[in-house]
Amino acid sequence: MNNPRSTIKKVFWIGYASYAFDFVFILRELIVSLVPGNSGEKAYLIYYITLNAIVISSAFLYLPIVISIRKFTHLASAKLNNPQRFVLWQLVVVAAEKTIWLPFYFGFFTHYVLNDWPLLDKIYVCKVIDSAFMMVVVKLTYLGCNRRNLQTILAAFGPKNILKKLKFWDHRSGQVHPQVPAVVAQIYTTNA
Which UniProt keywords apply (predicted)? Predict the structure, then answer.
């Protein structure tokens, strides 16, 4: 069985390697866009690189946080909640998003679908998809930021709750019945 610390180190290095690959590829695209006559495309490319650099730098900032959290592993609350797992949640989600999306985009999508599109349109497609993924990343990292949120979301998607939500075939649960308050019913009976 693997040591949990070595597994965490492997996750760190895989995450950082994927970010480094992403950053190197974006720098390569920037150098290609510096060809004279591509001034409009260069601005969009620099903007896209800046956004990705912010995401990459935020991932690198988790390293000192994890190191400081490991100093408190002897505390009972640290043993109960495993805070390093929740700190790494955002890194894992962002790395998974980049690992899944970038090879798909540059392998299949660019070669078969966007082959004759200008670079500006390709960058725009990347920005739109990154924006959609970023909303998912923010939501997933919020849900995984502490133990209570994570347990709540996992309980909501448990088998019992899913079956309750899928009971659309039970027509009795959707029926509406009028209810007359007791005071109003009494007034009508005494006036008659």
Answer: Membrane, Transmembrane, Transmembrane helix
